[in-house]
Amino acid sequence: MIREYRQDDAAAVRGCIVELQEFERRIDDRLRPGDSMAAGYLAQILDRCREHAGTILVAECSGAIAGFAAILTRVPFESLDDPPGEYAIVTDLVVREAFRRRGLGAALLREAERCAIAAGAAELRIGVLSANQSAARLYRSAGFAPYSETLAKRLDSHL
User: What's the pTM?
Assistant: First the structure.
């Protein structure tokens, strides 16, 4: 079941954030440990939701929070070379490892898209770490296509 976040979901959503952060730390070892940033990050998501007409969606299975997605539905384009207006963006999506391969990620994306459409968004965006191929496959299967790519070169070996 996909539903909107409630305050009593906070501990479970923080657990999802920790799991996602620890997975992403295997891709980029510079990231902060999940336990050290989860509470502040959830607060940041909630602030951004208030600022940009967003919401947190949770996937619930047998009373347990299996994952979540955060969507902001009114994010203004900021650069003069961007299109005018606003867009929607899925800022976070995670399904806990024990609940994967059940279609929950796709269900969260469908509900995020429904929220974006209901808010009048003309475009929905999502980001993914280039090395996270399983997430990229899910997003492409949900109709997302590459739009812009940021390339990075680590310089810490020169310090």
Answer: 0.90
Cβ atoms 135, 93 nearer than 8 A: yes
Q: Contact, 100 vs 87, CB < 8 A?
A: no
| Residue found by looking up tokens 């208030």 in the block | 50
AA identity, residue 132: N
pLDDT tens, 23-50?
999 999 999 999 999 999 999 999 999 9
Q: In the beta sheet, which residues pair with residue 57?
A: 4, 69
Beta carbons within 10 angstroms of residue 141's beta carbon? 11
8 Å CB contact between 51 and 70: no
What three-state secondary structure class fits 59?
strand
User: Which is nearest to 129 in space by CA: 93, 82, 89, 77?
Assistant: 93
Residues 22 and 33: their CA atoms lie apart, in Å, by 7
Task: Give the mean model confidence (pLDDT) for residues 1-5.
Answer: 97
Instruction: Give the distance, in angstroms, between the CA of residue 76 and the centroid of all CA atoms in the same chain.
Output: 18
Query: Rounded distance, CA 145 to CA 78, Å?
Result: 22
Say how many CA atoms lie within 13 Å of 8 toward its Cβ.
3
